[in-house]
Amino acid sequence: MTEGKFLTPEEVAERYRDAVSVGTLRNWRLKRYGPAFLKIGRTILYPVEELDAWDKRNTVICRAPQGLIVPPDDRV
Fold first, then answer.
1. Would 28 disulfide with which of 7, 10, 34, 45, CB 3.0-4.6 Å?
2. What is the DSSP string of 39-60?
3. DSSP code of 62?
4. Distance, C-alpha 67 to centroid of its chain
5. What is the pLDDT of residue 1?
6. Three-class SS of residue 19?
């Protein structure tokens, strides 16, 4: 968190293309779920690096179905 880049709840909702609403973020904060945040007085801020880490933790890895031939160039 040394870089100092933070997003407001509205900006976080925009980052996730409104798939996560400001209200959902509020509920998650109350339940201590979701990305880490800072609370300074009444202001809520989300460190961008925490959002990036949360994205990584929630990434779903898919595998190719059996029998599907994946060319060597396309393997991850």
1. 34
2. EETTEEEEEHHHHHHHHHHTPP
3. -
4. 33
5. 42
6. coil
